[in-house]
User: Fold these one by one.
Assistant:
Number 1:
Amino acid sequence: MVDFGTGSKKIALELLVIAILLAVIPLILMGNAYYELLAATVVLFSSMVVAWNIIGGYAGQLDLGAFAYVGVGGIITSELWIKAGIPPLLGIFAGGAASLLIAVIIGIPTFRFGIKEVWYALLTAALVVIFNNLSRVLMGPTDYYLPPKTGILYLKFNSYEIMYAIASVILILTVLANLAIERSKIGYYLKSIREDELAAEMIGIDTRRYKLYALMIYSFFLGVMGYIYIVLAASFSYRMFDSSSSLSIAIMGIIGGLGSIEGGIVSAMVLRSLGEYFRSSFGSTVPGLDLLLYGIVLVIVGIFQPEGIAGIINRINKAMKKKR
Amino acid sequence: MISPELLLQNSVDGIFLGLFYSLVAMGLALIFGVMDIINFAHGDLLMIAAYFVWLTSVDLSVDPTLTALLLIPLFFIIGIGIFFGMIQPVLGKEPLIQIAVTVGLGLILQNIALAMFKAQPKAVPYSIFNFSYSLGPLTIYASKLFIAVISIVTMYALNVFLNKTYIGLAMRSTTDNREVAQLMGINTRMLYAVTFGLGVALIALSSSLWMTFGQVQPYLGTSFSLISWVIVAMGGLGGITGVVYSGLIVGVAESLGSLFLTPSARMAVVYIIFFLVLWFRPRGLFGRR
Amino acid sequence: MSEALLETRDLVKHFGGIKAIDGVSIKVMEGEILGLIGPNGAGKTTLFNCITGTYKPDGGKIFFRQKEITGLPSHEIIKLGIGRTWQIVRPFKKMSVLDAIATGSLLRYSDVEKAKEKAKEIASFLGLPKDILEKRGEEITLMQHKLVDLARALATEPKLLLVDEVGAGLRPSELSAMIDTLQKINSERRVTLVVVEHIMRLVMSISKRVIVMHEGRVIAQGKPEEVSNDPQVIQAYLGIKPI
């Protein structure tokens, strides 16, 4: 991996690399609908992991409830279209706002200064299950479908190639948001909160407020992505509130390296693709192999290389610098 | 309308259930109190132990409770193994990583169970406690009573252990103030290992008791984990009494809830209790000063 | 008679059965360097923690610039103009020194570039060499840590700085440098200092006034020479009754 340096040059270069990668992949996969859908899903997952990085990597909170926010946002956006005719291009903002609201309700009590990190993790894990049960009661076990209309107004196309492009745009926007945070006051504050919360309070940082900011940005993004997830999945049900998927997002974020945008993207693309391969090849004989893989890699990373993929890249960078 | 007899029956069953839940949560509370670690894999360890109970019970054709004799020492050793293998290497690292490792462990256990046993629930087909007797309007189920008794006895023994033995006192003083405990010569590492082993052994005991009336499937851990967290959150670091009181509250709430709500809604009630505790009484949630 | 910059009235704080602070009333005058000494367990760090809001006092009040601050959250107290340094240094390990100090400046200057400028200025004021600025927190020496700690706190532009045992672990030459630095902070930046210290050489040479605490109470106040000869103070430190 190349050392991108710092500042605006870094941003431009990173975005260029990402854009090129994203543009190249369809050329390879063109024509095969299965792979195109897979690619779109993988890119969407990467966006979720990059968004997760805001709460997990920058703010240092172990959020295990990603799909609570994805689900709420996606379902609200879809229902607004189905029931009220509001086109998703507008509806996603309502979906994002709904997810944001839920997140803040969880965040306000748990981010009080001094409360151990663990309780946020537990509460978010529990949140997914609550919503799973609640929506099962409210929506029943049926699958719901989006109206057959397509077009940019509905952010819905039959061609998976176009959906891939939409997912790529979302990825780039999420990356931009991360970069903006990193270089701003909120980024510095979040980093110091993660380093040492007490010391951060002692230089005037309202730790609870800033963690909430991170949470709000993250949950809003996820709420928006929820709708695209539904389009790719072609239907939605209470099953959208899935604990394993929520854990997977956090795991990919950790394995990628807390605070690293590139690490998160690489980790998400590799692990999600691998997981998909396991599921399709061994799904019937050895169910859960993909999650088993995630769990094992997570434990190994946690014990031996907690800085994740980004840490490995850093080491390589340093070694290369020494050789010069 | 709900008859008073039904209410009474459910309350009594709730008390028995609550005592059992206290036992289940005890291992978690012990580990959390001494080592400051919330083991996310707590429920999943119970699930794995329950599979062991099922296998042993069926192979040897014994009542599930007898398997405890074998499994408690076995899981004590397993617990120590997990500690040295997974927990100890991350003790100095940032809390998010520590929690994440236990999350990974839980995921591994769940999916190994899923791969080996598939998703159908397994139950032990026989138990010597399949009788009950009447006490006026109440029916006392022998299995529930037995479990409650074992839970009380174990927690009493644990109480004695924590107050009267050197190791127990070492655990309590480490809970109170880790630095001072270390300064007083307590070998924290060995203590942690023993604590973790003990916590896991308690889980094994709970799973033997559970299998006298329950079933095991790979996702059994989720609800037990949640119940344990709620109990620890409510009980704070109030020692065994705190855990018992909280366990009773959860047990009775769930039991009475079953009169009005479906099983999944009941779980939601426990979650909501958790959430309310968090908003209004986060005593146990603040770390040590 | 000028008003006190900081005042505590009958401050009380206990932990379980122990009274860490048992009715402490002190005044810190603007512009002074006040020494705070006493044997271990006297309550000095607890007092700091109460002032900065880390602990909520169980009794009594604290006033800063005549406004009551008892019970306010820490970050608000810092914003009002109180800063502190740490007995055991608390570096931002993975951040660069410049970023760490700049994070402090961000309290007063929301623009990151401006905050970094201010940080550089503080760093050079304290004599931190330029090549340190790019090093990460985990890569510097103890003395540098202490200076960075000071810099980070100074970056929040406090009127009052609580300095907690900054001398511990320093070599004699470093100690002399630290004495000069603290005096510079007080005279050139007009920051009032309260210095908790065990190293007598440091605290006695820079303090105009010294307060002695023992077992949660103030047992003596006055000029350094007066206080060192006070029999109660001697007894507190040595544990024997003077003849």
Note: The CA atoms of residues 74 and 229 of chain A lie 7 Å apart.
Number 2:
Amino acid sequence: MFDFFIKRVATIVPTLVFVSMLIFGLQQLLPGDPAMILAGEDQDPTVVAYLRTKLHLDEPLPVRYAYWVGGVLRGDLGESVRSQEPVLHLVMQKLPVTVELALLAFVIALVIGIPAGVVSAVGRGTAWDYVANVFALWGISTPNFWLGILMIMLFSVQLGWLPASGYVSPFEELGANLAAMIMPAFVLGNAIAAVLMRHTRSAMLQVMSADYVRTARAKGLNERTVVLKHALRNALTPIITLGALELGTLLSGAVLTEQVFTIPGFGKLIVDSVFNRDYAVVQGVVLVTATAYIVLNLLADMAYFLVNPRLRS
Amino acid sequence: MKLSARLLCSALLLALAPFATQAQTLRVGLAEDPDVLDPSLARSFVGRVVFSALCDKLFDIDEKLAIQPQLATGYEWSADSKTLTLKLRQGVTFHDGEKFDAAAVKFNIERHKTMPGSNRRGELAPVASVDVVDTNTVKLNLAAPFSPLLAQLADRAGMMVSPKAAQAAGDKFGLKPVCSGPFKFVERVAQDRIVLERYPQYWNAAAIHFDKLVYTPIPDATVRLSNLKAGQLDFIERVASSDIAKLQSDKKLKTSRITEIGYQGITINIGKSEKAKQNPLGRDARVREAFELSLDRTGLAQVVMDKEATVGNQWVAPTNAYYAKNVPVPKRDIARAKQLLKEAGVPNPSFTLVAPTTSDAQRLALVVQAMTREAGFDVKIQAAEFATSLNMADKGDYEAYILAWSGRADPDGNLFSFHGCKQPLNYTGYCDAETDKLLNQSRELRDPAERKKVFDQIAARVMKERPVIYLYHRNWLWAYTARLSGVREIPDGLLRVTGLKLAS
């Protein structure tokens, strides 16, 4: 297990190098001159020329890449040309927001999705199964932004129970933070819960028909122990994989949900930066997100060892 | 504590309550997140909304676009119009306590002109030097007469920042701006909020009735409106045209409609690149005239903007004092359009109309396509993201392009850069020596009546060639709580905080 861990960690650096080249290269494919966009509507030629020099746009691609990577290695992710804020500062500002939203949404997804999947599998063919499947279909089909706007109209405008938008740091006021985050977290978590529910159901159905489950029942174990201790544990492997991927997606920023609820996370930042051709911000955010994905996948791999003792040898 | 004592204390508190100071915050919803808060570097419209509370200018404009004093209380032109003497307001300080005086004005003008990346350089290009006459008098010496200068000084080019703070912060000034407006900068969280607090030493403090201003960028118009309705915002700008009518019946809200100083139009490549010659629309003015005659501008304003636009055919609205009445808005005339196309030898011209991927531009493109089909035009629509479309226009890699302009108080700002030969915003490639001569002449004249005559001549020449088909001037649509009073409807679309009051 330790060897496996070391080998996986050793692949992180070359993976990140490859990802950095990919991010940098793909951005250059975006049509349009970034200096023109960043120069604003007046298009002053002096400003455009100044921006081209500042962004090294007239230099060869490898030279520009070297400038950027050199900065990254010194802990300098560059500066937003639009707002002049250091990219690292923007990332550190947005990361906790995105992490909190992602974790809350993930917890909601787990709390709803896995039990619903278990109930659906155990009660296959019954009304519970039907209800769970309808819920899953609704969750997968409902667009996030539509659900978000409806929730705002109901809970904020009509009932006045929750704030329509905004973000308050949990260290400032925890109650206000949770009040602001519950709707966006539910909107995001709801869609993932539906997916998790379907995969949990599928994995459980496969495991429940296994011999060892029949043996466990034959030994006289109660159904709760059979389902939770034997069946679910063995069904967790594909669910962990899916969960890690979904969490990674959440950490990259839920653009539409952040837009609807005005959550200042990664999603809004990266979309605005792409449209404004604010290259340094896009590169910095994507690099951080890619790192998060890689680390999450590593954690998922380690989690397999926890649930499946046979892998430890 | 005895009951009687408690009652007495409660009674005392209740009696004193009306006199207790209640901190008031005005919460404003913006359509975008502003860019850098440095008047020299700033380049977005929405940044100006924040600046109007943060950074006073030498002048301001009123509802009729007339120049009004702000940090400058008066001005005088020299006889040859090459020197502008400004009298400055006394007793003004910056947010860091530094005095505002003639030396500060000199510093700021020079900063606007020389700072690397400054977007004010072109606006102040005619200013050759600045002389400090005395503490409260400054002279701007011009290389040539330039009457739009006052309008420039009523915008970002006239914004004054603290020289001490600017020198200390260098090009990072925008992260913590220090100006002399009614509110000073507190904090900014990108895409979340900009917080300003009242500056107690503001020269017009009596007109300021808020302690705090919070600007929240909310790009989606529906979400912005929901926030207003939920009571989380007090004021929102750029309400969607499809929503404004429904708000009329909401007693808790008020609305404002202001005709913009900009325009929406179709820019045509008539000489920017070889592509202009390859297409009859770019080659032949008769085809462009036929195209214009096949459009129903009233219909466009109705369908695309839900009637929230003023029909026009020039760079200024028909209600503007400089509108050329000699070139009125043409009525739709399909028969004449067909005749012109026949004369031009192209009964069914085909071209591509580039439309940015905003909902307004896309709707406009579809309606234009349908309308002009009746005259025989075959308009193909190419949707392009704004950055891409702008690049195409700059290179001349287009035939026709839907492009709007936010507008400037002086008509020169809507005209010179677009129709002057080789000017930065001249995407059409229009270049006429006589028009250039008239454009320069309009800049040299100070008398509005004289300038109007020149603008009339420019309109006649430019409208004959039709490098831009001006369609309409959109309404700035605002919505705010009915408790808010003192809202001034100024055509630049910027909320003025002076005089605003929020009833409890």
Note: Chain B has 17 helices and 20 strands.
